[in-house]
Write a structure and sequence with these properties.
By secondary structure, the protein is α/β, with parallel strands linked by helices. It contains 6 helices and 19 strands. It has 2 domains: about 1-110 and about 240-309, FAD/NAD(P)-binding domain, CATH 3.50.50.60; about 115-235, FAD/NAD(P)-binding domain (3-Layer(bba) Sandwich). The two termini are about 15 Å apart.
Length: about 300
């Protein structure tokens, strides 16, 4: 049986790994289908303390991984589908294996949200609809694209796409961006980024080959319907927490976020089970706050394990 199993290799999980490894707990990190978490799909991270010149998101996660490995963290790929926290041995159940641990740190992060409109699913991936400009932006060199959303992610995606694309229509359902002022100002000042206000995307339109050729939008103020030509459709409308395996076992709120105990940010209702990062935090959702929660969860786990012996 493991001392501690950490679920996820984003900022929260790898920080928890660094701390528990340095505490000689020999942690096992279970890595899911997005190694390195959301930061690996971002471009430049400008607000992580200690990097005055910014750092590439992938490089930051690679550094965290190396730091965790240096102190003895082990990593294993697996997909946890359900858990059994009813006894002193915590069980994490995947299709082929049951992992057992004394303590568990859940840092499963969040996944990009989709609109659920016609054409979106059909053209997701190689046919024009995507949630990651860093991954797919270069495929749309000299083409017109749209970005859907009004938050920091949408602005960041739009700004990144200016490197490749000829025009980026930033479609937002209101007439004011949700993004931080610095990001909003930067996006709106860019000559290639054209805001499309008060508009919702109703359909992704396909060409004869089944690839995206544009979007159908509806102006929610005037009721006017129109089309915007686009080869790439970048969805940036927020995220859903990855908490399905914990349904019915731990407290989740109506949006699926894990709810910590009132006197702690990382303790769950089950002793020895902690939660950190975007699967529990719907307020701050920053790389540095996720890392901070990973540290808190690791220290809590370490102290709790010490009490058990
Ligand atoms: P977010 O802040 O939740 O913004 C989501 C955006 O999508 C909002 O503008 C929202 O519109 C829109 N939206 C949501 N559902 C929609 C729907 N069904 N149809 C149309 N539009 C919809 O998410 P985020 O931009 O991914 O950011 C998440 C967190 O990460 C934030 O805390 C952000 O500050 C942080 N972040 C930081 C950076 C950075 O600092 N470099 C970069 C990326 C993200 P409304 O505004 O109308 O609600």
């Amino acid at each position: 049986m493991e001392n501690v199993i950490i679920l996820g290799t984003g900022c929260a999980g790898l920080t928890a790994a660094i701390y528990t490894a340095r505490a000689n707990l020999n942690p096992l990190v279970i890595e899911g289908n997005q190694p390195g978490g959301q930061l690996t799909t971002t471009s430049e991270v400008e607000n992580f303390p200690g990097f005055p010149g910014g750092i590439d998101g992938f490089a930051l996660m690679d550094n965290l991984r190396k730091q965790a490995t240096k102190f003895g963290t082990r990593t294993q790929f697996d997909t946890i589908e359900s858990v059994d926290f009813s006894g002193p041995v915590k069980k994490l159940i995947s299709p082929n294996h049951i992992h057992e641990a004394k303590a568990v740190i859940i840092s499963t992060g969040a996944s990009p949200r989709l609109l659920g409109i016609p054409g979106e699913k059909e053209m997701f991936g190689g046919k024009g609809v995507t949630t990651c400009a860093t991954c797919d932006g270069a495929f749309y060199r000299d083409m017109e694209v749209v970005v859907v959303g009004g938050g920091d992610s949408a602005c960041e995606e739009a700004l990144f796409l200016t490197r490749f694309c000829s025009k980026i229509s930033l479609i937002h359902r209101r007439d004011e961006l949700r993004a931080s002022q610095i990001m909003a100002r930067r996006a709106l000042a860019h000559e290639k980024i054209v805001p499309v206000w008060n508009s919702v995307v109703e359909e992704v339109l396909a060409d004869d080959e089944g690839k995206a050729r544009g979007v159908a939008i509806n102006n929610v103020v005037t009721g006017e319907c129109s089309e915007i030509p686009a080869h790439g459709v970048f969805m940036a409308i927020g995220h859903n927490p990855n908490t399905k395996p914990f349904q019915g076992v731990l407290n989740l709120d109506s949006n699926g976020y894990l709810v910590p105990e009132t006197n702690s940010m990382v303790r769950t209702s089950i002793p020895g089970v902690y939660a950190a990062g975007d699967c529990v935090d719907h307020v701050y959702r920053q790389a540095i706050t996720a890392a901070g929660m990973g540290c808190q969860a690791a220290i809590e786990a370490e102290r709790w394990l010490a009490e058990q012996t």
